[in-house]
């Protein structure tokens, strides 16, 4: 009889541990989902100076709205859901960077090296891409409403599912 009681207690303990583990997973998942809703760090309105190859290249979830980044070296950077609304990135080096779901609306990317950049599903509404080098860029699903691509090089770029009216 005592063995049955111990067995029942063991089953109850295992069930409680399982419920606790599931609760922790749910809490962790909701924390991660909350992070996906908005940037976790904001540097908007700043000026990036003395930028070089040692500059951090992890830009995911950061908000660089209105930031002056002319000539910045962001080559091979990762900027998942990063925000660059109205940022000045003229003459910057972004070749090989990954900006999936990033927001570059109203940003100035003129004369920028964007060779092989990944702008898939990015918001480029109203962006200035004049004379930008977009060779082999991934623009799948990007929003280009009112973007200016005058003089831009788009040889080999993937423009499937691009939306919006833009100047070429």
Automatic annotation (TrEMBL):
Chain segments annotated as coiled-coil in the UniProt record: none
Domain of life per record: Archaea
Keyword Ribonucleoprotein: no
A Pfam match: Pentapeptide
Keyword Protein transport: no
Alphabetized Gene3D superfamilies for the sequence: E3 ubiquitin-protein ligase SopA
Swiss-Prot/TrEMBL keywords: Repeat
Record-linked PANTHER family: THYLAKOID LUMENAL 17.4 KDA PROTEIN, CHLOROPLASTIC (PTHR47485)
Protein name as catalogued: Pentapeptide repeat-containing protein
């Amino acid at each position: 009889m005592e063995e049955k009681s111990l067995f029942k207690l063991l089953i109850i303990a295992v069930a409680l541990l399982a419920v606790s583990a599931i609760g922790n997973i749910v809490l962790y998942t909701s924390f991660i989902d909350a992070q996906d809703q908005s940037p976790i760090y904001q540097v908007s309105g700043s000026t990036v100076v003395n930028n070089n190859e040692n500059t951090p290249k992890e830009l995911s979830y950061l908000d660089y709205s209105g930031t002056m980044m002319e000539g910045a070296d962001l080559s091979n950077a990762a900027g998942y859901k990063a925000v660059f609304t109205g940022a000045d990135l003229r003459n910057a080096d972004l070749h090989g960077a990954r900006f999936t779901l990033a927001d570059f609306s109203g940003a100035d990317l003129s004369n920028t090296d964007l060779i092989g950049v990944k702008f898939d599903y990015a918001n480029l509404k109203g962006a200035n891409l004049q004379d930008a080098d977009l060779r082999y860029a991934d623009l799948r699903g990007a929003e280009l409403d009112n973007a200016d691509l005058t003089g831009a090089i788009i040889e080999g770029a993937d423009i499937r599912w691009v939306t919006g009216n833009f100047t070429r």
